[in-house]
Design goal:
Neurolysin, domain 3, 2 domains, 3-stranded mixed beta sheet, 3% strand
């Protein structure tokens, strides 16, 4: 078989598998937005069927034959799509079909049970399905294999190459830096507050203003839409169908606005993959951490600058005329950069946010390794919240039930949020170097230069390069926490008028 025919057959199979994956994503999106509660059991079966079918296609005799021929013909070194197909096949064959079916069904059921437990503020409702998911994920980790730590096998799903041994020292340094910042601002913390963002903001106006900002960032709503959900997320069925979701708190604009900005960052990445990668394994982010860097660059860096609010405040005033009275761009800059340890991860400031991730990383690591029992999660969670952030949740909904990730079996996902912050800080440094007028562009509401840079330097690769390779190509340096710490010290010094070494 000649190389051209072989590659066409491989791409055809990838197209089919990707189409089934897209259909599964549609069902997941519907489950999180419009699906009636009573449909959860049947939906779990549907998703399980599709997930099993994808696994069968990726591990079946046809796929095995293609992989052998691709390796024999050395096509994987010439075509990144062929390399990706071989890699995904080799990962998939490690997982028994029965395990894939059990995991996908438990994940689909878990999300609805989590919603009920969260609404009733009762972890005990969620504990049995979570225990089942943990058992399955431990089995999956054993099938995938690891060198030192069982949790490494799950970390690698979301961030290729990440290990507990690598993350422990990085997180230790971030914990120390965060502690330094929190202690430094203690004497002056009363000088800055987020009151401008904590007024009454009608929900419809919040959605309209947030959509306006998303469009200014470059999100194309002719190929996407925005809806409400319990836990904000972005999902994509192709580059031409990207869905954003958010939630509204009428007493806090940040929840909706910065939730939309965050998900728009993800959406821009999804809309930015080269069209020739459509319906293939390359039409994905390089990793969850790299994906998070795209959302966090916009959410926590670009749109929290004073220049952004110089642009946004007049528009803010059109949607919220009463709330905008007497406010300056500097007031808004302070309001969206207030450092205040809090209970909710998605509403945490960008400095203390990492403590939420470190807490979840440590709990997940211990759960997967069997050194923490499911029933003991609330107690462990509350103890770490008190130690790391000085706050303790009054109920499970504000504590260990606040995130959706465990309900869909996303163990190993959380560290990617902090890794995304590290990537984003490195990207931001490079953007400022190559675009010396970027701050004035932001003040004028001109974001196309930033988006074009991201399209060329990040989005264009899709999943054809690893995140480590991309960040090295873009910045010349391997991933490190140093640039984020430097950025955080500078931000806090600017906001609070103090000097940090």
């Amino acid at each position: 078989m000649n190389t051209e025919v072989l590659e066409k057959q491989t791409i055809s199979l990838m197209n089919t598998i990707s189409d089934i994956g897209a259909a599964t994503a549609v069902l997941n999106w519907d489950q999180e937005t419009y699906m009636p509660h009573g449909a959860s059991m049947m939906r779990a079966e549907q998703i399980s069927t599709l997930s099993t079918l994808m696994h069968q296609m990726l591990t079946g005799e046809n796929a095995k034959d293609l992989v052998l021929k691709l390796k024999d013909g050395n096509a994987t070194s010439q075509n990144p799509l062929m390399r990706l197909f071989v890699e995904e096949h080799e990962k998939a064959v490690k997982l028994p079909e029965d395990l894939v079916k059990k995991v996908s069904k438990a994940q689909a059921l878990g999300q609805d049970i989590w919603k009920e437990a969260r609404s009733k503020k009762d972890f005990s409702i969620f504990a049995p399905i979570l225990d089942e998911l943990l058992t399955l994920k431990r089995e999956e980790a054993e099938c995938r294999g690891y060198a030192d730590n069982r949790y490494d096998a799950l970390l690698d799903i979301f961030e290729p190459g990440a290990t507990v041994a690598h993350l422990n020292p990085v997180f230790d340094k971030l914990r120390d830096a965060t502690s330094t910042i929190v202690h430094a601002i203690e004497p002056v913390k009363h000088t800055v507050n987020d009151a401008p963002m904590r007024q009454h903001f009608p929900g419809d106006a919040q959605m309209a203003f947030s959509k306006f900002i998303a469009e200014k960032m470059g999100f194309d709503f002719s190929y996407g839409r925005m809806d409400l959900t319990a836990h904000p997320f972005c999902t994509s069925f192709t580059q031409h169908d990207v869905r954003l979701t958010t939630r509204i708190n009428e007493q806090d604009l940040s929840s909706c606005l910065y939730g939309v900005i965050h998900e728009t960052g993800h959406g821009l990445y999804e809309q930015g993959f080269p069209i020739e990668y459509a319906r293939t394994f390359a039409a994905e982010g390089a990793s969850i951490g790299m994906h998070e860097s795209q959302s966090l660059l916009w959410e926590t860096i670009i749109t929290r600058t004073e220049e952004f609010w110089e642009f946004a405040l007049p528009h803010f005033a059109k949607y919220f005329p009463e709330q905008a009275k007497g406010l300056s761009a500097r007031d808004m800059y302070h309001a969206v950069n207030t450092v205040m340890p809090s209970l909710i991860r998605v509403e945490a400031d960008e400095i203390t946010y990492n403590m939420h991730i470190i807490l979840r990383f440590e709990i997940e690591r211990d759960l997967i390794n069997g050194t923490l029992a499911t029933k003991d999660i609330p107690e462990a969670w509350n103890a770490k919240m008190k130690e790391y952030l000085g706050v303790v949740p009054s109920n499970d909904a504000l504590g260990c039930l606040q995130d959706v990730h465990w309900s869909f079996g996303g163990f190993g996902y959380f560290p990617s949020y902090t890794l995304g912050k590290l990537y984003a800080a490195m990207e931001w440094k490079k953007i400022q170097e190559v675009m010396p007028n970027v701050h004035s562009d932001i003040a004028n509401g001109e974001f196309s230069g930033i988006l074009n840079w991201l399209r060329k330097n990040i989005h264009s690769y899709g999943k054809t390069e690893t995140p480590g390779e991309i960040i090295k190509l873009v910045t010349g340096n391997p991933l490190s926490e140093e640039e984020f710490v430097r950025y955080a010290y500078g931000k806090v010094s600017s906001v609070y008028g103090i000097q940090l070494a």
